[in-house]
Amino acid sequence: MMNRAWTAALVVIALVSGSAVARADTIKFCIEHTGTYDDSNSNQDFWTTNTKRLARGAIAQVNRNGTPILSPTFLGDGLGSGDTGTGCTPTMTVSSANASYAITVWSGGYVNGNYVVSVDHTDKQMRTVSTTSVISSGSGTYTVEMSIPSGDTFDIMNVYNAGAYSIYRHAGGLIDKYYTYEVNAGTSGRSNGGPITICSCHGKRKFVISHETGHHLMQFAANNGVHGKDTGASNAECDETPSSESHSLLSKEYSGAAFYEGFANFYAADVWNDDDETDCSFQYWKPLPSGGGTVNCQTGAGSADFPNAYMEANCTVAAGRGVELDWMRAFWYLHTVGAAPDPSFNEILAWVVDAALSPDWDRDSAYQELIWALPFASEIYTSWPAAASVHGVDH
Fold it and tell me: pTM for the whole thing?
């Protein structure tokens, strides 16, 4: 039996040891950005209003009372079992005391296995936004709202957030690709081996950002091998293209160009609409004859301005020609209509890239090459002929 002296000694040791251990808290931060998109509306399924968005996958650093406790690292992107949470830091252990936390976030990050970077077109540099929060002692998860100053920093962060969300939704099964957006450029577009450029007029246009991302993703999947994108066949009989543009949603083009632009529009529609539903709202950015840019891309939802098969309804039908709107809707039909399971985005991407890399692919052979490349005994094989017929791309 332990005697009374030993018992007293152990109590003293326990008390002394306990007083020497500093209490610790575990904390994490989840970062929100202000964001504004001029093409958000309630007919879409995601980001229907302008509000704060979590800084998905962005680079962040945290200092506590002036000392770094989290070196620049990627915030969570909302994917994977080990993810820290969308826009959230890892959990950090700190001493229990009131402290000032300085948090810095960059306009670059890592999302769905790919790098997303938004920079200024002139200086090629990312932008940062910082804020300071005073946190009382105690463990917990703290949401930090960051207000982004107006001007180029706002647009650069805005483009990062929309680009990151696009890659979060659909990366095509690709990894370790770089999606670099140069913001405040003269025009919006992309070039093989180059960056995505976003003009100052489109810094608040999420559909433009996703459209150009869709082009980039297709070319990544094809090792920049997609060609035959000549838009020079526009025909004045039904061409609604503004004089300053080479093509538009409703211009009659070579089928290769209509396919290429239509697929990028489909990608943008699939980013901002729920593909488990058949309804679809697409917000276009160039002038249209109706005066508005909202297009119902749902199959069977044609209207006087946007009939289901626009070329067949408004133009002289010609082999090897097409309209971007029709091709976008045909891909949406394929993705959402027909016997389950519907083809996934990745399956559709693999099929169209296989077709576009055919040595026989030319500017006016898109439909024929897609038919030759149909994966046998698949849902694409079953549904594509009907999709192409309903929307008049089978020419």
Answer: 0.91
